[in-house]
Design goal:
Residues 38-57 bind DNA. With 207 residues, the chain is mainly alpha-helical. Helix content is 62%, strand content 0%. It is built from eight helices and no strands. It has helices at residues 17-32, 39-46, 60-79, 90-113, 119-128, 135-148, 158-178, 191-205.
């Protein structure tokens, strides 16, 4: 027997049931986070029977991985475009990349924090990320392009520089996760602190 179509799909829309389930799970992650998210809860929100999910996904972990990826993409779209190589100033562009990365990590922290006890979901999420898609890869690509354009030192160690900026964003995540235990929040928050990080990186890669 074919799975019962969700009420949201009965009006002849082009969205498939699989896409509808992913979109529903992504919405629930946005509203409630991932902690305690169940197959039954997703199915009810999607307007389908519990078993319908298994007609479109191998298991709950696969659905959550796709929903988590959709959530990250939604946050990235909301944050806007990143600077292109060759435009503006290196300092201003790196600042934009760092602010974007900090905002991205802060926004997706609740979703990832709720999955720390579900490593299978995180592993499948990682498998969905294509090279060049995520913010880190785009940052490295930007720095390489600027080096090729001659706007950075010809021997600029762009990969280590990118790791420094990524590390700052990861520190933000760890600081927020540990804050409840009394650990201080050491991640840069003010414009002056962000500018200081960018200046430190540029001292190592600038012309």
């Amino acid at each position: 027997m074919a799975p019962r179509r969700a009420a949201a799909l009965r009006d002849g829309g082009e969205q498939s049931l699989r896409a509808h389930l992913i979109a529903t799970a992504e919405r629930l992650i946005s509203e409630r986070g991932t902690a305690g998210l169940t197959v039954r809860g997703i199915a009810r929100a999607a307007g389908v029977a519990d078993g319908v999910l298994y007609n479109h996904f191998a298991d709950k972990e696969e659905l959550l991985a796709h929903a988590l990826r959709a959530r990250v993409r939604a946050v990235e779209r909301a944050l806007g475009e990143l600077p292109e190589p060759g435009g503006g100033t290196i300092e201003g562009n790196l600042r934009a990349y760092l602010v974007h990365g900090l905002d991205l990590h802060r926004a997706i922290l609740p979703a990832f924090a709720g999955l720390l006890a579900q490593p299978e979901v995180l592993a499948r999420f990682a498998d969905l990320v294509r090279p060049g898609d995520d913010w880190r890869d785009r940052l490295i690509g930007y720095l390489r392009a600027e080096r090729e354009l001659g706007r950075l030192a010809p021997d600029a160690p762009v990969e280590p520089a990118a790791r420094m900026l990524v590390g700052v964003c990861h520190e933000t995540v760890l600081s927020q996760l540990l804050r409840h235990a009394g650990a201080p929040d050491t991640a840069p928050a003010s414009p002056d602190e962000i500018d200081a990080v960018v200046a430190a990186v540029l001292r190592g890669i600038g012309r």
